[in-house]
User: Fold this.
Amino acid sequence: MRLDEFDDSVNVEDQRGSSFGLGGTGGRIGCGGIVIALIGWLVFGINPVQMLGSMQGSDQGAQTSQIGQPSRAGGTTARESCNVNAYSHESCNALSSLNHTWQPLFEKAGIAYAAPKLVFYSQQGRSGCGAAESAMGPFYCPADQGIYIDTDFYDQMAQQLGAKGEFAREYVIAHEYGHHVQNLLGLSDKVRNLQESRPSQANALSVRLELQADCYAGVWAAKNGDRIDPGDIQSGLNAAH
Assistant:
């Protein structure tokens, strides 16, 4: 996918090179968990709702309060952070493109818009929703409107899922941005309220929220269709599945 260089619209926080005490994750499931659950459904016929439930339980049991070691260094400014490596640069380009895609849509609809921040971390970090751990995969935190990613996930995605190429990596950012859109529209709060009132449907509602975020990622791809290269769509599908 041929994206323009990122601009001043990107809000970046870099936690690489910092040490954090790891607290609870609040029962969150990152993008990596959703990907695995969907593969289990599509390939093996395993109910994704049941798989997500078991993953959520094991995630909560693995919470720790140990102090981690400093990870590799990041940047001190947005431009430095975006140029730490090629993956960081691609992520910032995707964020900039997403900002320029969604802001006009919100303005046209008369809905207040605020751009999310992109938070880089290595192995472990801290979010407004609790600990950020690389094992969780990329995730969105509504409490601080942050998209959190350890860019090592891109290598894991290529090796384990066969999702290679720039578009597959940019799609990951677009999916998490989709959760930001849900948050701005108040959909995330509505789902959380439903989960509290209907606990037996909590995991099913989480799956639907993830699928809608995929749909919003597709909106971004459609709005930038003239920038998509042959093979990009299959690459994005590999990232989604």
Notes: The two ends are 19 Å apart (CA to CA).
